[in-house]
Amino acid sequence: MIKQLVSVCLALSAVVTFSSCEHHRGSGHIVTENHSITEFTRLSVGGQFDVEYTQAPAGNLEISGDDNLMKYVEISNDGGELSIKMRKGGWFDIHKNFTIKVSSAQLEEMNLAGSGHMRFMNDFKGDHRLKTAIAGAGSISGKIDVPEFDAEIAGAGTYNIAGQTRKASISVMGSGDFNGYDLLTEDTQANIAGSGNVHVTASRTLRADIAGSGDVRYKGSPEVSSSIGGSGSVRKG
User: Fold this and answer.
1) For 40, which DSSP code?
2) This prediction's pTM
3) Where is the Putative auto-transporter adhesin head GIN domain (predicted)?
4) Are 137 and 216 in the same domain?
5) Residue 184: which residues within 8 A CB-CB, separation 6 or more?
């Protein structure tokens, strides 16, 4: 999943790089549009979008942003995946990030590419594994209650997560930060490649693998095992 997100992020960067791309400047006049949607379990967002996700029956997607750039936003819901992104082939100088308000009864996967933000607006509860990923400098935040939780960062992204899960898998490639002291876990696996930081709470086991100068800080009294290549460290926070 993270490889796909990296590809998306690189593609977004390439759009800005090539001078042949059309330049679209936001008007600064913010408008709101509504779209009817059906239920989805996967949410993928690429670009400058701030997403407010609420766990509730799906039905409406609300988007706010520059009026002259609305036509370049592509929204699709196919096979249970809701995708929100900017049309390819343009360089968008927006007044501020688009704001998306959306809901679904359940969510299994959440992917963010670019500099946007995703926030759980209410306490998310599920009986399945929740997979999330950030590629770029975006952020994901909120409170969850799921049996298993995966969080991946490629770049300088940030997580601020609270709640509880039995098993957590955290992966950071780059300089990202996972702030999860308020996420109560039983077993946690933390992998860092680079200078990232992972803060977790575990009650039973913690496995940390570090390549680089990254640091893992933990709370609780888990059985700790680690493998460190570089100047990274694992210690109680």
Assistant:
1) -
2) 0.90
3) 39-222
4) yes
5) 163, 164, 165, 201, 203
